[in-house]
Amino acid sequence: MSDPEVLGRILVMQSVVSNLPDEEGMFGFICRGLEDVPGVTSVSWEPQAPAEASGALRKPVKMGTKEFGALVFEIAQKDLFCPYEPYLDNFCFMVAVILEGRFQRQLNERQTASLTRSLAELEKAHLKIIESEKMAVLGQLVATIAHEVNTPLAAIRSSASFLLQDLVGRSEAMLDFSRSLELEDFTWFKSLLARKPREYAAGAGSRARRHRLSQALEKAGVVDPEAMADDITLLADPNGEGALVDAVLRGKGEVVRQAARFLETIHASTIILEASDRAASTVADLVGYSHGQEVNERTAIDPAKELNTLLRLFPGLSLKGLGIVREFEPGLMVQGDRDKLNQVWINLINNALQAMEYHGNLILRTRSVENGAEIVVANDGPPVPDDLKEKIFQPFFTTKRPGQGTGLGLDICLRVVGAHHGTLTLTQEESLTVFRVFLPD
User: Fold this and answer.
1) Residue 13 lies in a domain
2) How many Cα atoms occupy the beta-carbon half-sphere of 97 within 13 Å?
3) Last residue of a domain, one of 129, 156, 188
């Protein structure tokens, strides 16, 4: 039988630790407070797993598969300590939630500093290029692009900061919510938080699935069935949605909602950070344009995985009338500079979407060919006129409206692919405009 006074002290500690400013002070407070648990002689914080297991009881502080360390209990009387173990497990999980929130904040702060440095470097490069007569025109273009890139970067940084504050707020709200749950519901809640959030697919099949779920939930009398359908879609694939629907109908909808909101916030923050990386990489490519496109470290790359990731950065992919066709060879890998090749895929996808005005089919294909691999980005929009097929690879040439392009994109693609000893070609195949990248083994 556990002592209510001891349990009360544990709950009070859960409320206090989130407000402690640094981890050293937080774990000192925790260790001192938990030494009052019956049967315990001492408590210590262990930031890493020991090389050899000790005889003490190790309680990991982890969230999902991510472990931050462990609280190590020296136990004098096991029978006195056992009643408190489930509550200490929950306490360790709450500490992990707090540490994850702090980790996300530090990650955003580092990203903001990196973006600031990138913009400063861009300004320096702009001034240097302007001093060179030979590159004066490029200097003017970089100045224009710097202005245009600075605006979305500022929005990204602002959004990341907002999401971070929202994440911290959700952490505290989730602590309060978690303490209200029975032990069985709390265990299930932790398993939901350990899941990776599923992406909201843009296809008609995903929309039909959410509509079907919403109708079923509405018939069952669930409040706000559309929002609950979105939460279930985020947490489970079609094979696993039935268990969540049953839980909602048993009155566990708030558990599902809280888990989905927390994972959604982390997912959104991750996407913004990825977009920031891509934007900063674009700035770096423009700064280094006059110095060529040297390939840095070569690594093994899964082009299908990279293409799927980059598609998330493009707005409007869920618009009616736009289809994404993926024809990927399983297990295909290429060797190259990941960041520079990703810039190629971004430029080719962006050009295709703008050429077809987000209406039609975007085709992405990867396959093995003799002595290498082929990556195709194609669309069924208006064809490129014959007299422009050679010109579009020239620097500063563009067919886009003012403000939509600088004419550097395809030339950068050509130089990056060339630095990988590959080729980039444009062909018209029946109703498709096809850009084909060959990368040798």
Assistant:
1) yes
2) 30
3) 188
Count of the separate structural domains present in the chain: 2
- Structural domain of 305: 293-440
d(CA 427, CA 440): 20
- What is the CATH classification number for the domain harbouring 97? 3.30.450
Final residue of a structural domain among 188, 219, 238: 188
pLDDT tens profile 102-144 = 788 888 888 888 888 888 887 777 666 544 444 444 454 556 5
On whether the pTM is more than 0.70, the answer is no
User: Do 16 and 164 belong to one domain?
Assistant: yes
**Mean pLDDT score across all residues of the chain:** 76
pLDDT in tens, 336-372: 998 889 888 988 988 888 888 888 899 999 999 999 9
Q: What's the CATH number where 390 sits?
A: 3.30.565.10
Q: Mean pLDDT highest for which of 140-154, 201-215, 301-315, 328-342?
A: 328-342
* Assigned domain for 60 exists: yes
